[in-house]
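I am going through a labmate's work and have reached the protein record below. What it holds is a sequence and that sequence's fold in token form. Please read both lines and tell me whether the tokens look consistent with the sequence. Do not assume that whoever made the record got everything right. Thanks in advance; the entry in question is below.
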Amino acid sequence: MPDGVRGGYPAPIDLNSSDFSEWIASQECTDSLARALEMANSKILEYTKKKWDLEKALKERGAKKEHHEEEQVAQEGESPESPKKGVGQNIRSIIQQIEQGTIDGIQLSFKNITLGEAKALAEAMVANAEKSTIKTLELYGNEFGDEGVMAFSEVIANENSAVEKLDLGGCDMTDLGAFALAEALKKNKTVRTLNISSHTGITSQGIGAIAKALGTNSCITKLDVSSCVLDRDGVSLLAQGLKTNTALKDIDLRFNEQMGNGAAEMACALKQNRSLEVFDLSYNDINDDIVNEIALALQENKETALRTIALRGNNITDAGAERLVQALNESNNQTITDIDLTTCNVASCSDKRVRV
């Protein structure tokens, strides 16, 4: 067994008080804590899945018993109860269409779907995956939490999934749900548009897992992570994924004011990326220094596919706007048609491609 590892977990480190102070400030300490947290979250995810599987088995057993009782009631001429207790009529109707294979899209944003209803929908989609034609799954604003996200992650992890648009924005997701979604994305070959916006409970660990999945994902072309309270670490991890991703064309990072210098790392990723066409960093407290990094990326990356750069509502001045114009001219850029600097501190700009 390698030194420092016992059963997969970091071994205790024997340090005196002076060594400890030095170690606690070291990168080794940071890396060790990150590994420990990742393993802990992995175990939580594993046990949550086991809990979900057990609940599902118990539910199926209960359904069989209930079905038997309903047959007896029917034979006696009485009206049986609905076999989908706790599931509203609208959801029951959708489940019936899923079972019949007659529905190609589910639009349920802001419908107050309960966790039970979310699980029932997901289970129906998995059970009928082979005949499913559902390409759109819009669930924004339904706070069914991590267990609901895990349920729909199972849907897209299924090899027969046809889902191309997955909207899980504002669903009360935390790192646990993000880990499950990341694992599903590693298997999925159909999702093109992914929305995980409006989640304040996802930390850099959860974003890191999704970023890692995106690093090798060749399907997703549009990603929305706006309003997620992304900090510098989270944005840095996304930037790393962006450097190797060859499919993503549109990324929305609006309203993540806590990203700080992470925005500079995201701008640096543009030096290597060859697929991104729309890049939105609006309302992120970005200044002229970050704009300079974007300008450098435009100058260095002669193969950029960027068409639109949105920087609305940032602390950018006339100097920043002219720096972008300089970069466009010096690189002889022919792809960018729109740089949006509206509601910034820019009075005017000499290039029509830059809107102020």
Remarks:
- The chain has a mean pLDDT of 86.
